[in-house]
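Researcher: Please predict.
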Amino acid sequence: MQISVTTPALLFPAISLFMLAFTNRFLSLGARIRHLHDQYRERHDESIRQQIENLRIRVHMIRRMQGFGVMSMLSCIFSMICLFQDWPLAGSILFGGSLLFLVLSLGISFLEIRISVRALDILLEDMESPTEEMIAEVKSDHR
């Protein structure tokens, strides 16, 4: 299969958009962790600690996603350089590497999204299991 210099260039917009999305996720999670940390220092609530731990895992995953995204971009750039220099084998190998790094980044992104569902479950657990205060309140309302 023959590829030209423009073939790897097609990945640039996609990789850039993914990197932007990953950065936005990282920033929003960082803000959420800071907010929850302040709440935890005030109340020492176990559910808040669990949420923070879940967010910590997700932040580390996002860092890996960004790392593979950067590696994908660099492989893409070096692939274009090799193809421009008329080194088709090296260019093709680097382009394949770029695609592999992009797939790894997206795979981790998929796993991170699945873990984010767990964060919502932790948040909603207190609504599913009524506390003793809520039960006492309901009983007093019925009297």
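Model: Helices lie at 6-9, 11-43, 46-84, 88-128, 132-142.
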